[in-house]
Amino acid sequence: MRHLISPLDLSVEELDYILCLGQEILKFPENFSHICEGKKLATLFYEPSTRTRLSFEAAMLNLGGKVLGFSSADSSSAAKGESVADTIRVISSYADICAMRHPKEGAPTVASMYSEIPVINAGDGGHNHPTQTLTDLLTIKTLMGRLDNITIGMCGDLKFGRTVHSLINAMVRYSNVRFVLISPQELKIPDYLRKEVLEQKNIEYIETNQLEQNMPNLDILYMTRVQRERFFNEEDYIRLKDSFLLDANKMKYAKKDMYVLHPLPRVNEISTEVDSDPRAVYFKQAKYGVYVRMALIMTLLGLDSEKLFFR
Ligand code: NCD
Question: With a 6 A CB cut-off, is 263 part of the ligand 1 pocket?
Answer without folding.
Answer: yes
